[in-house]
Structure formats: C-alpha cells, structure tokens
Specification:
By secondary structure, the chain is mainly α. The protein has eleven helices and two strands. It has a single domain, classed as Hypothetical protein af1432 (Orthogonal Bundle), CATH 1.10.3210. It binds fe (ii) ion (FE2).
Length: about 210
C-alpha cells in the first residue's frame, strides 16, 4: 500500500449531491439546465480523455471538479434572470467562494477559479483590465488542467454548442499566440475528444 492510499482524504460530493447544490444556487430552471448540463458534458469529456490518454489522475477529483467548475455562473444573474456578460470572467472566483461557503475543500474550489480560458496570468489581468484581483489563475495539477481543457470543447451559448479544437484555437488566438500555443500543447498532451457521440446525445451542434 502506498503512502497516498493510506492517507484519508476529504469525501467528495456525489453526482446527486452536486446536482442538488446546483439546483439550490441556480436562480432559474433555465440557468440550472444550461450550467448543469454544460458541467455534465465537461465531466464526460474529461473522463473520456483521462481514459483514452491513460492519464494517472484522481478520477473522482476530475469528476467532482468538472461537475462543479461553473457554479459561479449562478452568481452572475440579476433579479430579472439576466446574465452579467461583462463580468463573466468573475464566475471562476465567485464559484470558488460559493464552494468555500458550502464547506467544500479548496481542492474543489480551485477548479472554479482556475479553469478560465487556457489560464489567466497576473499580466493578463492587468493588461486586459479584467475585473479580478491581480494574480495568476492557472491550472496547476493534471486534474485541473484536464478540466480546464475539456471545458474548451463546449460552450454555454444560446443554443449551447460543441467547439472543435480548430474553432477554439481560432478563438483563443485573439488573446495571443502564447495562448494558442498553450492550447496546442494541451491538445498534444490530452488528445482531442471525439465530440460526435456527445453532440448526438445532447442534440447540440458542433461548430
Ligand atoms: Fe465551463
């Protein structure tokens, strides 16, 4: 038995506990459907990639982290049910705060605050004038990197859509060649998911 397997760790919430947490914080049925479905899809992509790439990751942490990564979006809706698009980049830190207030471990909160784009640096915050406390918001563990990567292949647009690697690469290049290069490295590390089965299952188109 390894040292790690002897160390008891915090129990992670089950799928149904996470679903209930979403339902508790979603301001509307529509918001719940949009965000929770997206999280389910990101979870499916991340777990498939973990398997196909033969990654040595904590699968339970990937599952719970991906299912929770976007809960902060619920905090961006106003009383009229409208989403604050201008402040959208804050959904990560808002989600981390939400999970902290729920008593969930930092290891889960980090999936919220460290999954945006291909990682946000202190320089990005300053240079782009982002509404975030200056700091680095970069995925560090393989689990965090995998969830951040899987998130790039599905978008909560109206209607929601799957994005190919080429579509996301073209999008992220607008933020700099260094960002596009980071995405290319992740594609090589984790592989590019086959989105067709999920697109068929959820009825979202691939663009
Ligand atoms: Fe997401």
């Amino acid at each position: 038995m390894t040292e790690a397997s002897r160390t008891p760790r915090t129990r992670l919430p089950t799928d149904s506990e996470i679903r209930a947490l979403h339902a508790r914080h979603a301001p509307t049925e529509e918001a719940f459907a949009l965000v929770h479905t997206h999280c389910e899809i990101v979870c499916a992509i991340a777990l498939r990639l973990a398997g196909s790439a033969g990654l040595d990751v904590d699968v339970e942490l990937v599952r719970a982290g991906s299912l929770l990564h976007d809960v902060g979006v619920y905090r961006l809706y106003d009383d009229g049910g409208r989403l604050d698009h201008a402040g959208y980049v804050r959904h990560g830190i808002l989600g981390h705060e939400l999970l902290r207030a729920e008593g969930l471990p930092e290891s889960l909160g980090r999936f919220c605050s460290h999954h945006t784009g291909v990682g946000i640096t202190r320089e990005d915050v300053v240079r782009q004038g982002l509404p975030l406390p200056p700091g680095d918001y970069l995925a560090e563990s393989t689990e965090e990197k995998l969830v951040m990567f899987a998130d790039k292949f599905h978008s909560k647009t109206d209607p929601p859509r799957f994005l190919t690697a080429g579509t996301y690469a073209a999008h992220v290049r607008r933020y700099g060649d260094d960002k596009a290069e980071l995405f290319a490295v992740m594609c090589a590390t984790f592989g590019v998911p086959d989105l067709r089965p999920l697109a068929a299952a959820y009825g979202h188109e691939i663009v």
